[in-house]
Amino acid sequence: MSFRARVAVLVALVVAVAVASVAGSFLYIARGQAIDSIDSKLRLRAVDIPSLGEKFRGPKEFDRRLFGKYAPDDVLVQIFDSKGQIFASNVEPLPIRPEDLSIARRQLKPRITTAEIAGYRMRVLTLPLPVPGRAAMVARPMEEVDAQLAALWRSSIQIFVIGVAGAALIGFAVAGRVVRPVRRLTEAAMRVAETQDVDQPIDINRDDEFGQLASSFNEMLRALSLSREQQHRLVADASHELRTPITSLRTNLEYMQRSSSIDDDERQQVLDDVLFELDQLTGLVTELVDLATDQHQMGEAERIELDELVDAVVQRHSRRASSQIEYSANSCQIMATPALVERAVSNMIDNALKWNPPDLPIRVRVENGSVRVSDNGPGIPVEEQEQVFERFYRTEEARSLPGSGLGLSIVRHVAESFGGQAQIINHDEPGTTIELSFPSLL
Predict the structure, then answer these.
(1) Average pLDDT for residues 51-75, to the nearest whole number?
(2) Which residues pair with 353 in a beta bridge?
(3) So what's the architecture of 3-149 in CATH?
């Protein structure tokens, strides 16, 4: 069943319950009022009944004139004693029940009941008379009430059917307008799935929940478009960067294949070039994998001691670095994936060691959720300080040195993955200071 049909059925059910409740309550109240009207008339007619009891000292034939204003078609009157003997009646004798005899003996209070008499439903009032052992019964048929209630019941059924049918039609029509934005979103999603085109947003100018849903869908399309653009740029840049070492490897290997006689020094030089290019290629592929790997595949974010993690990275680099590393830290905690933060800090230290003079130390400082790495190199021009965080970007001086141009882009990627940032800090001292910062938990 479609959503539109479900809404129509739901509206119809709600209206059905409402109409049935209202109709049932109305019929119940109408029936009570009708019975109260009959009971009131019975009590009114019973006002003069006690005076009639004085006129009947024994069984006597019915004399209509004794009842004065009473008429047989108005109410039915019957006088009897505690033994069930009928003294007077303006109709055929009414059946006397044990409860009626108890009222004549004054053992029960007067009461009004509904009885089936000669195939007719009647409302019967039984009350004692002043003469001991005597009682009177005043009855009135309920045909008129039953006819009115039956007519009301038929009208209620008609209103119920018309109301439910009308509600279903209105609900179906309203649901059509309600689901129109959803249908447009569905069509857009199917179009994206079929054409893979994520550059066509949904044009829905609404301020309600459907407008928010459309805005979220458009945001998702923009994110997909940006992700695809970044993916294409990464593939294009990677293919360009990979082509250089591969071309160099092919050239050296073809040279060795074509040359029948190569002296040992030249062969060693070619092999050294091959190994160098293989190292470059291996590093480039590793950094590409690190950059393309989703952070969730590296583990969930957790609370980590940033100063302890950076200390371990510094200790590892100190054992194989030519420059001294001066490390200082304040205790702080962040929420991140340890492996990714370790990779980013390692890239920052590698970058500093590459540019730092061997006889001067580099400085690593941890405080308030940030890591600063400073070197004493030539520095980075202000106009290139943002570009160095882009993939494969290398300054003019860096193109003659080993590296792929991905190290600092990985640093920024890790920072932004956990709500932080990576930037170059400008100061008056020589060299470059790169800061990797995260929201601190302390």
Answers:
(1) 50
(2) none
(3) 2-Layer Sandwich (3.30)
**CATH class of domain segment(s) 293-437:** alpha beta
Is 312 exposed, middle or buried (CB count within 10 Å of its CB: 0-12, 13-18, 19+)? exposed
Q: Per-residue pLDDT averaged across 18-33, rounded?
A: 84
For residue 65, what pLDDT is reported?
Answer: 42
Q: What pTM was computed for the model?
A: 0.45
209-291, CATH topology level: Helix Hairpins (1.10.287)
Q: pLDDT per residue over 268-294, tens digit each?
A: 888 887 887 787 677 667 766 665 655
pLDDT for the residue 3: 67
Contact 80, 135 (CB under 8 A): yes
**Rounded CA separation 295/339 (Å):** 9
Q: What one-character-per-residue DSSP string does 102-129 give? A: HHHTTSS--EEEEEEETTEEEEEEEEE-
Cα 205 to Cα 215: distance, rounded to the nearest angstrom:
9
Q: How does 271-303 read in b/e, with b if 16+ C-beta sit within 10 Å?
A: eeebeebeebbebbeebbebbeeebeebeebee
